[in-house]
Amino acid sequence: MLWLCRRETLRVSKLWTQTVLAPVVSSLLFILVFGLSLGGRIKQVGDVDYEVFIVPGLITMGMVQAAYANNASSIFQARFDRYINDVLSAPMKPWQMTLGYTVGGLFRALAIGSALLVAAAILVGVPVERPFALAAAVVLGLILFASLGLVVGIYAETWDHTTFIANIVILPLAFVGGVFYSIDVLPSPWHELSHVNPVFYLVNAVRFGFLGEADVSVWLSLGVTAALAVPTYLWAQWLFTTGKKLKD
Amino acid sequence: MYRNDAPALELRGLTKRYDDGTLAIEDFDLEIPAGAFFGLLGPNGAGKTTLISAVCNLIRVTEGDVLVFGEPAHSLLARSWIGLAEQDINLDRFLTVRETLTYHGGYFGMQRDEAEERAEEMIAAFGLQAKRDTRAPKLSGGQRRRLLLARALMHRPRLVILDEPTAGVDFELRTELWRYIRQLHAEGTTILLTTHYLEEAEELCEEIALIRDGHLIARDSAAGLRESFAVDRLQDVYVKAMARS
Questions:
Q1: pLDDT in tens, A83-127
Q2: Residue A247: inside a domain
Q3: pLDDT-based confidence at residue B1 (cuts at 50, 70, 90)
Q4: Residue A81 and residue B57: Cβ atoms within 8 Å?
Q5: Within an 8 Å CB–CB cutoff, is residue A157 touching chain B?
Q6: How remote is the C-alpha of B90 from its chain's centroid?
């Protein structure tokens, strides 16, 4: 299993300009454009400066998109080129395959998250008030999206299927999940509707970890994220155990 | 521990029906003794690759048992004993030659030092020294084919399955591969070879099975097949066997 983990992290490292640098630059542009320029007009959200307020959401968005995209593309490519057979025929247990493939997404997302954290700390001085809550939120969120990437990459018949989920589901949910605003400013029914968006809870859990405050209870946020992460991971595990869509 | 007297491969009542309803293999029985050089011949769609995929845990078997040296083929032990070179080139596009071999060794339970040492051995054996740090997509067709074979042999399997290993390769490489495969067999490795080249089967294999439409049609040595079909050439055996209803 360690070799599969190594292979997945090696792939991320070899393609670092695409897998890490590009998402970091794009998230930094959001911080610069929305935070530093727009922040001059919005000033504060609650007691927090706007440029600081948006950082947790942007880091979350960058990380979950990377965790999903990495695993969806890695497993789809392996299926498409059929070199996944080298893994499927190896003396590895299904749980080892699931974990091995999940690690790549986690590694890439954490590399992006760490780079953004350092940059944001320098640029806008974002604090980390609750590190344990932050760690729990990040781990659960990444398991959720890395596993989702695996599931989609296994079911996908074309590259379009993997990008469809990224562009039509994950990105819009992230944008309306309170990355750029507090949902307290939303009128009804948008305020209520935000509560059915799973990314909203993840963004809030991460924001609580950074700032020590959020729109909803951190326990609720972590609970909702965990309630989605566990079944999604088990779904990926089921696919490796049964061989469905992996073996004819 | 494995039984020394167990056949290298036993298929009992193997049936595979794909999700689209295609019946690729039906109630297929086959036993290949340990140490044999066994050939599997048949036209495209006869079920050769399906059979190999069933042995290598790459398809979901509909019915029947597959045993490798007495162990169920899906067990981790059995899987560690099989080396597969597939018909299509399926190399990891992100890995170099050296990494392809080392990672394969790792997947099959080798420690890092052992895998790295064995990878260098295989690189030398297959003449890939100049390409050791080149990624698979940058290799020529012949080099990819060599790497595919080197990967199949990397973890020192007891049963090597070669699915049309010389398809589309030039005469020089084919001769070179034959030499390596023969040497492997002489060292006691069981070889299961599928090929469309009848002269290749006749030259290399001790026993040959002819399959058509997922059923075993005949099985014997090349000489035995010629005798039972009352013809002089294996090519004529093949034509007769495939023409029979």
A1: 999 999 999 999 999 999 999 999 999 999 999 999 999 988 889
A2: no
A3: very low
A4: no
A5: no
A6: 14
**Nearest residue of B to residue A244, measured between CA atoms:** B60
Residue B203 covered by a domain: yes
- CB-CB under 8 Å, A88 with B58: yes
Run of H or E including B208: strand B207-212
CA Rg value for chain B: 18
pLDDT score, position B244: 67
How many domains does one find in chain A?
Answer: 1
Cα–Cα dist B222/B214, whole Å: 21
Residue A208 domain flag: yes
Q: Does A16 touch chain B (CB under 8 A)?
A: no
User: Which residue from A minimizes the CA distance to B111?
Assistant: A3
CB-based contact, B197 to chain A, within 8 Å: no
Q: How confident is the model at residue B3 (pLDDT cuts 50, 70, 90)?
A: very low
Closest chain A C-alpha to B79 CA, distance in angstroms: 5
**ipTM metric:** 0.91
* Relative orientation angle of helices A22-30 and A50-80, to the nearest 10 degrees: 150
User: Beta strands B37-41 and B71-72: pairing type?
Assistant: unpaired
Q: CATH number, domain at B166?
A: 3.40.50.300
Distance CA B9, CA B69 (A): 6
**B237 within a domain of the structure (yes/no):** yes
Helix spans in B126-221 (H): 141-153, 171-186, 198-204
pTM for the complete prediction? 0.90
pLDDT for residue A23 is more than 60:
yes
In terms of CA atoms, which chain B residue is nearest residue A248? Answer: B59
Interface contact B107-A2, CB threshold 8 A = no
Q: What is the number of other CB atoms lying within 10 angstroms of the CB of residue B57? A: 24
Q: How many Å apart are CA B128 and CA B87, to the nearest integer?
A: 20
Alpha carbon B39 to its chain centroid, in Å, reads 9
Q: Which whole number is the average pLDDT over A177-181? A: 83
Helices marked H in chain A: 2-14, 16, 22-30, 39-42, 50-80, 85-88, 94-124, 131-155, 159-164, 171-175, 190-194, 198-211, 218-242
In a domain, B1, yes or no: no
Sign of CA dihedral A77, A80, A82, A87: positive
Instruction: Check if A1 contacts B (Cβ < 8 Å).
Output: no
Find, in chain A, the residue whose alpha carbon is nearest to that of B77: A91
- Which of 76-135 (A) contact B at CB < 8 A? 77-78, 81-83, 85-93
Burial class (CB in 10 A: 0-12, 13-18, 19+), B106: buried
Residue A19's domain comprises: 2-242
User: Which residues are B14's β-sheet partners?
Assistant: B28
Note whether residue B235 is domain-resident: yes
* Host domain of residue B230: 9-90+159-243
Q: Give which of A1, A2, A3, A77 to mutate to test B binding, by max B Cβ within 10 Å.
A: A3
